[in-house]
Amino acid sequence: MLRRRADFLAANRGLRAPTTGFVLLVRDRADGDTAMRFGITVTKKIGNAVVRNRMKRRFRALAREMLPASGIAGADHVFIGRNSGIERPFNDLRADLAKALERVARGESAVRRQPQPRR
After folding, report:
1. pTM for the full model?
2. 99 to each of 10, 23, 55, 69, 107, how far by Cα in Å?
3. What's the rounded Cα separation, in Å, for the pair 113 and 20?
């Protein structure tokens, strides 16, 4: 599991696969280690602590279920929660993750938006 900020920032430079309930970032570490790691980030914009923790639990369950079979070996996978993922049925999240992993495996990535200037 990813815990250091530097790992999350590095993953942000990798492939990006947006879905309805979350955005999946995947970055090959290129360090020779075949272990798959994952990280989860859900901002305060999404909701209070109860909502954010529920969403993180669902992402952890998804990662444990699907990454060993469909994830990319030697890569970091980061889930970024979206508002629409809060009440999305778990089966739909599972289907979203399967599609996102397929896109990333093919090397397809969404164009990264430019950050908005800070006010």
Report:
1. 0.89
2. 23, 12, 19, 14, 13
3. 17
* Pairing relationship of beta strands 75-81 and 37-41 according to DSSP bridges: parallel
74, 28 Cβ separation under 8 angstroms: yes
Q: Which residues pair with 37 in a beta bridge?
A: 76
How far apart, in whole angstroms, are the C-alpha atoms of residue 74 and residue 15? 14
Q: How many CB atoms lie within 10 A of CB 106?
A: 9
Residue that the structure tokens 């979350």 belong to: 22
Amino acid making up residue 111: V
Residues 16-49: tens digit of each pLDDT: 999 999 999 999 998 989 999 999 999 999 999 9
In this structure, are residues 51 and 86 in contact, taking their beta carbons and an 8 Å threshold?
yes
Q: Write the burial class of residue 92 (CB in 10 Å: 0-12 exposed, 13-18 middle, 19+ buried).
A: middle
